[in-house]
Specification:
Structural class: alpha/beta
CATH architecture of the largest domain: 3-Layer(aba) Sandwich
Membrane topology: Peripheral membrane protein
InterPro entries: AAA+_ATPase, ABC_Ni/Peptide_Import, ABC_transporter-like_ATP-bd, ABC_transporter-like_CS, P-loop_NTPase
Helix content: 25-40%
Family: Belongs to the ABC transporter superfamily.
CATH topology of the largest domain: Rossmann fold
Distance between the termini: 22 Å
Number of helices: 11
Domain ABC transporter: 3-248
Shape: globular
Organism: Microbacterium memoriense
CATH superfamily of the largest domain: P-loop containing nucleotide triphosphate hydrolases
Strand order of the largest sheet: 6-7-8-3-9-10
Number of domains: 2
Radius of gyration: 18 Å
CATH class of the largest domain: Alpha Beta
Largest sheet: 6 strands, mixed
Length: 262
């Protein structure tokens, strides 16, 4: 078992916002955390890497490869981020540094975690840009985030997250800000890279149709609690909770492909 979450709680200003969440992500599995806004899915994802906002207090247990993450010093968690666990956020414009070229930003993670020299890391950045299908990778790494389209910025963010070949990728609504065509391309890219590298995936979304493109299992959250979980095919064909039934009704028609979760 690569990731085990047991009875996770998160309190903010004395209010419990995540209450007893438990789920597993076996080696190589693709699991979705899904729910409406305020369900606790993004806070759960941030807790996995010790990135909760100031004032938030987490309890329970988060074990990665048998090692307890809750309570680990920030320095040890920082080493793990990018090296063992990568994360892609919803809006790359805010995740990327506007005054550094995207090549330097991809290379920075490689230099930190692999100890490579600047020139070697920059050469690797070109390879990583090519891997996520950025056009003209040798040229695009010299550009700044504002010179790229939204889809290209998200590909840069994916390249940064995967540059050191982590064993687990956390993707927090990585396609929400993109139009439908680019969204489908990014979902296909993520699924292909995860499968190719044998990574585990935790994918956070509010859209069941989107989730059907990348995950095989899902955990449905409402008000900080798990209301249903299981194989995605079961949730798509025979949802048992009203929450999942509502998500199924709201599934984005343009991305709906019933065979996508197989």
């Amino acid at each position: 078992m690569s990731l085990e979450v047991r009875d996770l709680t998160i309190d903010i200003a004395g209010r419990r916002v995540v209450d007893g969440v438990s789920f597993d992500v076996p080696e190589g599995a693709r699991v979705g955390l899904i729910g409406e806004s305020g369900s606790g899915k993004s806070l759960t994802a941030l807790a996995l890497l010790g990135l909760l906002p100031d004032g938030a207090v987490a309890g329970g247990s988060i074990r990665w490869q048998g090692r307890e993450l809750l309570g680990l010093p920030d320095r040890e968690l920082a080493k793990m981020r990018g090296d063992e666990i990568g994360i892609v956020f919803q809006e790359p414009r805010t995740a990327l540094n506007p005054i550094r070229t995207v090549g330097r930003q991809i290379a920075e993670s490689i230099r930190i975690h692999e100890g490579l020299g600047r020139r070697t890391a920059l050469a690797r950045a070109v390879s990583e840009a090519e891997r996520v299908h950025l056009p003209g990778p040798a040229q695009i790494v010299r550009r700044y985030p504002h010179q790229l389209s939204g889809g290209q910025r998200q590909r840069v963010a994916i390249a940064m997250a995967l540059a050191c070949r982590p064993r687990l990728l956390i993707a927090d609504e990585p396609t929400t800000a993109l139009d439908v065509t680019i969204q489908a391309e990014i979902l296909d890219l993520l699924r292909t890279l995860v499968e190719r590298d044998g990574m585990s995936l935790v994918f956070i979304t509010h859209d069941l149709a989107v989730l059907s493109q990348v995950a095989t299992h899902a955990v449905v959250l409402e008000d900080g609690r798990v209301v249903e979980s299981g194989p995605l095919t079961t949730l798509l064909t025979a949802p048992s909770s009203p929450v999942t039934q509502g998500l199924l009704r709201d599934a984005t028609a343009t991305l709906w492909r019933p065979g996508g979760a197989a």
